[in-house]
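re: that chain from earlier
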Amino acid sequence: MDHDPIKTRILIVKLAAVGDVLRTTSILPPLKQKYQGAHITWVTKKNAAPLLSGNKCIDRILSIEENYIEFLRNESFDIGICLDSDPHSATIHSVAECKNRFGFVANRAGAVTLANDMASEWWLMGVNDDRKKKNRKTYQQIMYEICDLPLPTQRPQLTLNDGVREFGASFLRRNGIKSSSRIVG
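^ sequence. v structure.
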């Protein structure tokens, strides 16, 4: 069985609301393009894992409600990404051995700090409502800047499995909705 060699090991820590987890998946294609042969491990909450499942850009999903810390303590990563400035996410990012870090980490006192200078704009918007209101960049643009990824941004990545697709098709048939109809919600 032939496998492409892993050249870059990337850790992504994203625990926030499931919508935030989904919209952060937009960084996956440019990460895979920038770091050829990348192996991506994503740490998240159990309720967000189904949104990531089946995504061809993600090689492994670890849930914080299950055994994950053992993997992080045992492995090393070339790149660590934590785009949330909350203490839990930043601490997980800090525990992992990463050569290069993007976003946020926690220091030994438990305070959240910047992992790289490009995260300062996002940090300042989080503590200054006026600055946040004046912002004209999209979430994706800011996340790309933090991760040093090239623009333009990509759409969030959602992979639907066969069961979900069949459920949707069945719902349309049962309710007399044409698949060509514009559907919202």
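The radius of gyration is 18 Å.
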